[in-house]
Specification:
Radius of gyration of chain C: 16 Å
Strand content of chain A: 5-15%
Number of helices of chain C: 4
Strand content of chain C: 15-25%
Number of strands of chain C: 6
CATH superfamily of the largest domain in chain A: Glutaredoxin
Structural class of chain C: alpha+beta
CATH class of chain C: Alpha Beta
Radius of gyration of chain A: 18 Å
Number of domains of chain A: 2
Distance between the termini of chain A: 15 Å
Strand order of the largest sheet of chain A: 2-1-3-4
Helix content of chain A: 40-55%
Bound molecules: flavin mononucleotide
CATH superfamily of chain C: Glutaredoxin
Shape of chain C: globular
Shape of chain A: globular
Largest interface: A-B, 49 and 63 residues
Distance between the termini of chain C: 49 Å
Chains: A alpha+beta (about 160), B alpha/beta (about 600), C alpha+beta (about 130)
CATH topology of chain C: Glutaredoxin
Structural class of chain A: alpha+beta
CATH architecture of chain C: 3-Layer(aba) Sandwich
Oligomer: heterotrimer
CATH topology of the largest domain in chain A: Glutaredoxin
CATH class of the largest domain in chain A: Alpha Beta
Number of domains of chain C: 1
Chain lengths: ~160, ~600, ~130
Amino acid sequence: MPVEVSEAQVHEIVERWQRSESFVIEMLQDVQHEARHLPRSALEQISREVGVPMTRLYHLATFFKAFSLEPRGEHMVQVCVGSACHVKGAPRLVHACERHLGIKSGETTADGKFSLEPVRCLGCCGLAAVLTIDDELHGHVTSANVERLLKRFQKQEKKAEVT
Amino acid sequence: MAVKRLHLMVCAGTGCVSNKSMEVKAALETEIEKHGLAAEVDVIPTGCNGFCGVGPILLVQPDGIFYQQLRPRDIPHLVEEHLLKGRPVQRHLYTPPGEKGTIPLMSDIPFFHAQVLIALRNRGMIDPEKIEDYIAREGYQAAAKALTTMSPQEVLDVVKASGLRGRGGGGFPTGIKWESTKRAPSENGTRWVICNADEGDPGAFMDRSIIEGDPHSVLEGMIIGAYAIGATRGFIYVRQEYPLALKRFMIALNQARESGLLGEDILGTGFSFDIEVHRGAGAFVCGESTALMASLEGNVGEPRAKYIHTVERGLWNMPSCLNNVETWANVPPIILHGAEWFTQLGTGDVSENPWGGSKGTKVFSLAGKINNTGLVEVPMGITLREIVFDIGGGIANGKRLKSVQTGGPSGGCLPEELLDLEVDFDTLTAAGSMMGSGGMLVMDEDDCMVDFARFYIDFLMAESCGKCTPCREGLRNMNMILQRICDGKGQEGDIELLEEISACMIDAALCALGTSAPNPVLSTIKYFREEYEEHIREGKCRAGVCKALITYKVDADKCSGCTLCARACPVNAITGETKKLHVIDPNVCDRCGACYDACTFDAIIRV
Amino acid sequence: MARLSVQSLNALRDQLQAERAGREGKCRATVIVHMGTCGISAGARQVMTALLGALEERGIADVAVSSSGCAGMCSREPMATVQRPGEAPVKYADLDEKKIVRVLDEHVIGGSIVKEYALAMGSERAG
Ligand SMILES: Cc1cc2nc3c(=O)[nH]c(=O)nc-3n(C[C@H](O)[C@H](O)[C@H](O)COP(=O)(O)O)c2cc1C
């Protein structure tokens, strides 16, 4: 899985948002989506094409949690650490995910497959504790059943890769 | 004609979807096809019903029968019994916690019948992706009424008289905000209306539910607001963590444009207005008005000082009216039914003073250690006790209530003694908490109040934009102090120091993130001071949460020797043979709690 | 959808509400007249007209009437299905203008099934 974005793609993204300064956050989001990070070259191109200084783009890139300057893993495991999940054992859940993936939260596995990110609230407090693996949400997760969940996902992922 | 004999309303809210409600829906469609019922039975994916704890949910209309916790494999039997033979299936009906008898009708279930739906008026009754469903339930009637039979001033007067106050946290009177925006000078007459759909408060999910379940209600509110204020353009700022909400907004916007309800010459009345949607990029502070507007302009979301209010100079220096999702959703029913109808519900008197009471309803998200978790809309002035016990079904697992937290990170923790508090904007503030956006988190004896204050301060520290010193440094220092108290290294004077820092932040922070940040700390000190003192003086955490102060043990009476805990332990601190008592070696144990979650006999205890 | 005016918005609402009465739990019953080719040639349209006329005569607005395709038993057309909330649906066969009015009065309004005309209750055959 590439973590790059071509000049043509960046150009297309800039055009999609009408080169408008007020949509630079959207442009960065689209680049982040394509490349799983914000490559310097893409920032420079946006800066040139939209006419906003690099300092501003770096300010945005480091201010918002959606952005990263280093490539994120192919799959995101986001553990909700909002208040409702906190009282339903989210700290123990984060710990269990760290153990299973062999990384600390905020990090990416060496093979670039998984990133583990705590998020502040996924808005599914009725199902606490929750986590998402990519776009799929899982409710009532505990440190005791999360390993099976992750293992199942990793297995599917391996299978998908083979075929 | 397309009348159907039965309408199967399948909850397609995020909660139910994660519990496989779409597979349930597919199974229903397959079975219906198989029995040749497709012409008679309609399957409708609806927005969130709010009773997320018992999903996936299915409501069968017109019977009013409520099914819960359905699995795809339950469906063939259910279709045959209920749809063909007209016999509700007992085992999928709702049973209240601790009781035996089932309650077949949705309207009889206590969770639902104590609620009054205004903002959530269409909940579970419409397919949010169909504008026709919204129109069938009087959708866009309020906009039509306002645009054709009322002057902008008349619309404004109704909203003012209704006493509606902002549902986004501060409770600012909506009519006054509209009026200020309308009156503010603008050289070229430009004014904006903005919808705050950033919903950053952890523990709150009503805005998500409204957008996902009834997006047109927000658009209609904004159209009416724009007409009253004289705005020609609107903006919606949605947080990126809500992809489905974003999608629903986009669908609704396109439908409204195609139907002539947005854009040029709305409903042929000559009034023109359109809305554009922006995505947030993950920053709690962007929910604050000035930060949100900065972010809409493509800048980082840092608040500014408000010597000049955003109603005068907001987005691109133009008069801007920012309201919350739930606030906008309240507008159409108020216009349709009148201010008097709205003021019948709620507390106080707003006829003279717009701050004189809290009118209408409020949506709360009930979460934590409560039986019925989910979303509820209740009249202002209802007591905490009614919400927690009558609607929420009481505390889960036979535990004892310790505290109800309202208002998220800007709010506070209220003790059991205040359960009879009548909930409105002002009573909550007076008690040291806040309405906030309506998060309501119930905690039991297993929750540590110091740890919980630390949790919020840690959150706020991470989210503080860092622009002003009181907030940036105040939170950092509070976090340090709270952390050391939780680590058993607290010192005499720490409580007083926390209070002192709080006072400084309240006085001097730039925006409400900083000025309200001390609430979780001050309220827990006020109502649960003894827990702080125990941590500091005795090195004791009575709830068994603070890692440094507890040890995990096996309760010899309860242990069945099932080996689950030993297998779960990542550091091999647990020994014991099958069917024999297990023992935790405290020198090896790193207190991760994996055994506690793994044990199905409640045999792991924290002392 | 075409651009709406206030008039067309109201008209659309009325039509949609009529279609969705059952969803609101508001109608006391739904009657579906099966109007496949076979049904129509056997007189389903007349049955429908008679039903609608009788409803209007009695001033009843909370009975949803709809049509659907062939019920799969062409030899027994015209057919109709009556459903009252919380009860099993009942299929009637070999209907005509008089019979449907009796079904309306006795079953839809009165609540007791007209056994002579009933083909099946739910999936089980009656009698
Ligand atoms: C740090 C901070 C975060 C906020 N987050 C939100 C939010 O997520 N949603 C919201 O509607 N209001 C939020 N607010 C309140 C808004 O500043 C503003 O008062 C509100 O959107 C106005 O709408 P209302 O009058 O309809 O409540 C936040 C305020 C602060 C200080």
